[in-house]
Design goal:
BirA Bifunctional Protein, domain 2; Rossmann fold; alpha+beta; elongated; homodimer
Chain lengths: 450, 450
Amino acid sequence: MASSKVTPLSGFPELLPAERLLELHFLDTIREVFELHGFAPIETRAVEPVERLVGKGGDTDKEIYAVSRLAARGTDTEAELGLHFDLTVPFARYVLEHAGKLSFPFRRYQIQKVWRGERPQEGRFREFTQADIDVVDLGTLAPHFEAEMPLVIAEAFTRLPVGEFRIQVNNRKIPEGFYLGLGLSDVAGTLRIVDKLDKIGPANIVSLLIESGATQEQAEQCLALAGIRTDDTSFIEQVRALGVEHPTLDEGLAALAAVIETGRSVAPGTLVADLRIARGLDYYTGTVYETQIVGNEDWGSVCSGGRYDALASDGKVTYPGVGISIGVSRLVHLLISHRGLTATRSTPAAVLVAVTDEESRPRSTAIATVLRERGIPCEVAPKADRFGKQIRYADRRGIPYVWFAGARESESGERVDQVKDIRSGEQVDADAATWTCPPADLRPGIRVGE
Amino acid sequence: MASSKVTPLSGFPELLPAERLLELHFLDTIREVFELHGFAPIETRAVEPVERLVGKGGDTDKEIYAVSRLAARGTDTEAELGLHFDLTVPFARYVLEHAGKLSFPFRRYQIQKVWRGERPQEGRFREFTQADIDVVDLGTLAPHFEAEMPLVIAEAFTRLPVGEFRIQVNNRKIPEGFYLGLGLSDVAGTLRIVDKLDKIGPANIVSLLIESGATQEQAEQCLALAGIRTDDTSFIEQVRALGVEHPTLDEGLAALAAVIETGRSVAPGTLVADLRIARGLDYYTGTVYETQIVGNEDWGSVCSGGRYDALASDGKVTYPGVGISIGVSRLVHLLISHRGLTATRSTPAAVLVAVTDEESRPRSTAIATVLRERGIPCEVAPKADRFGKQIRYADRRGIPYVWFAGARESESGERVDQVKDIRSGEQVDADAATWTCPPADLRPGIRVGE
């Protein structure tokens, strides 16, 4: 059916089975943690009307993929559709569309593909999977949810083979109030400039700020604020020491202090108050989050989000929310290519049941059936073959055990099954109805490859 | 962010949380069975070059969704892309593209969304999830795989709340050899006519066959073959009794007998030899499968597939395969709307930890943390409130237990936690470190709704 010429599509990477097993380990772990915290699963359709996708700020408009029926092009009267580029925009629409059937506050998780027509580069794909949690309420949203979000993420990341990580938290009201208190009224413009600090360095930030109308002193104050970073609430004193005052600044400092305090009591050492974090998207209005893998800060944030006062509105009711999103594909691909992570085998099978001749296949199938009933994933050898070949077949896939039906004759003259651990070479008598697969071998493990 | 006017998109249905929990139960069960049988997971990108999607027979060309970057329309030099409409075409391409890194025979499962621009109607969607298994090999493929496929499906369906089901099996070589033996050389044309039997009835089939050049007797013989249906190998005698002979017919009968025999020994009563099953798609060359839910035969096949001698070819190597595909979204939507199936709750949380005043929230959070460490999904009440309100909150979501911190004073004057089963009203002392959640309540169950 598929014929010769196949060329990979740039920006649409695909994983080999062992790599996909690694990704599934990530997805399963993340989902388990989300469910332990009582987030309900939903999925939204992959497409939205284009007019709902455009105008969300940044470069997103240029990156939207339009979708139309090939046969109906040009003549179609259907609404113009586009593939969603994140899970927040479709979630907001889902909330409005189904509000009457949802209970608020509504806690949901959503793990799905999204598409962005970006210029492909390492860790930047045109199709990738995101894992999001959000809490959305009617009218007002309790502030404790802003402290909860990063703690759920911390729990997921602690269970994942990512090593040390750091969740950086800020509150948009801090720079907003600070800039206003300084006398800089173009808050968004100032934020946008300071956001480039990592890329262009402090000297250029100061020049740009002065260009946009700030004094030297104001520019330096902005830079000083962005430099504050503490793992406790001492950031408050450091901000106060800059001598700027504004009610919005006070609100922001109190809100951020609450998040950091809760973090310190529940998961010490994971949250950092980092007053440089701004997040590009315009809809954030309070707490914002970014997450870095320690030692690989150059990967950028692998999990980000924040609070929005108006996730959705139907004209009468406003739905404030707070959410955070893990860039799963990005993270997994980076771990594969930079840290050599992979699964210990390329199949879920823990056991290969050998077949010595085709006539005995039903016997091997029966053994496999018993093992599966007991929750042990296994495969029956595809071809009757010598023992050595069967072991090589298992070895190539990383299957740890090979089962030989009736491999040994007992003293009473009966044929006894044996199972071989092909890593150690140890071969022992076994009965499919009672043999225990070591729990560590039941599912593929994770290893650091060559 | 999302504003007022939201209208559902026809053909792109979305599930409410309790319904999505039902769907996840299906997806998890199917995946578990696939993994128990040693199928390795892969995912393919959602898009393929359009030229790879067109020309697969039937109405598929008209139903392809084309994808292009909104910003680059008309000016784009990128390959024209389309959303995949099944998982077989992309799998064939994946095999060719990654052949050097795969081990054959390659057993894979794939659970993903597909898109078809069909006219939306009940159980026919424009976006839906399929769950596929296939085995593909180099050059030749052992026939025992054709018997294995429906047995994996039977195991999955037995674990799912679908009631009685029937997997109908045929072998394309039977009608092919039979028609040739009868002297009808237009095999494809004859198949296409007989395939309409259910829709237009026997009299119309005979007329159409005669119109296409068959004699009355030949037409009646074709109809007689299509009427044969046995749950053992007695179909062979019934075919022989029609007095038609052809070597291809013999091959087909022997192959089908092998599948039915294996089925009877492993999963008695699930496989039926049904000589009418043809499957529309042109690439099937041997065994073909369809699956019906007993009592809801009008839903059509919910799981279909077959054998293809050339799934893919790179000019030098040919890859034969056999596979089967469950139409998960279709099945779940039909069960929801016709049998009222749903999950027993709209959240994964088994416990709501009550909060009596905002000052005691850290205490409730600490209890939740202990429960979660022990694998019990729970939610901390979003708002401090009276006991009755907390119970109503849990009840609305179907959460079976509400936990009250320090609800009772013990004789020694200590505060003791209590947990209430809100279904029975029973409230007992409990300690988060030792309380056992009844296994049936750990995850949402399935129930038949009103």
